[in-house]
Amino acid sequence: MVRRTVILAAAITAGGGCVAPRPTTAPAQQEEALRLLLPQRIEIVGPFTRVRSFDEDDMPDGIELLLQAVNSLDDPGLMLVGDVRVELYEFVPASADHKGRRLECWTVELDTPQKQRTYWNDVTQMYEFRLGIDPSRIPPAERFVLAVTYTSP
């Protein structure tokens, strides 16, 4: 009886080690898979992006920008690695291009785990940037143009 048990255990162990070789994926298929899931565009979340005060007073001292990355399937909630450049422009009414004079420019690096934790909101699945600015440079009536550029590594 002991002999059968040992042989059975050896057969189970030997069978578990046999694995068929995995077929390799062609580079074109790998690129297509990455293109499918990686960010294809970034979007400013308009309703929540606004001029606000970051301290206890009511005096606005910056812009809170909410930003999301979206893949080719239109799924938001993706994280980014690289640099995000944000430019603030005056709003020019009655113009085809509402972008007027540039007022401010910020570059936010998203290249370390600590920086990701600083800006990423797990609940909303968006980046939240608090962009400080001299209150005298904030456009009147909160009408402004924000341009965001993402650069991957």
Describe this entry's structure for a reader.
- The chain is an alpha+beta fold.
- It has a single domain (39-151), classed as Immunoglobulin-like (Sandwich), CATH 2.60.40.
- The protein is 22% helix and 38% strand.
- Strand 6 (120-121) and strand 7 form a beta hairpin.
- The longest helix is centred in the first third of the chain and has 15 residues, at 2-16.
- The chain is elongated, with a radius of gyration of 26 Å.
- The model is unreliable at 1-14 (pLDDT under 50).
> CATH fold name, please?
Immunoglobulin-like
Largest sheet: 5 strands, antiparallel
Total beta strand runs: 8
Strand % is 35-45%
Mean pLDDT: 85
Distance between the first and last residues' Cα: 64 Å
Helix and strand sequence: HHEEEEEHEEE
Output the number of helix runs.
3
The chain-level structural class is: alpha+beta
Poorly predicted ranges: 1-14
Question: Which descriptors would you attach to this protein?
Answer:
alpha+beta, elongated, 153 residues, 3-stranded antiparallel sheet, Immunoglobulin-like, disordered N terminus, 22% helix
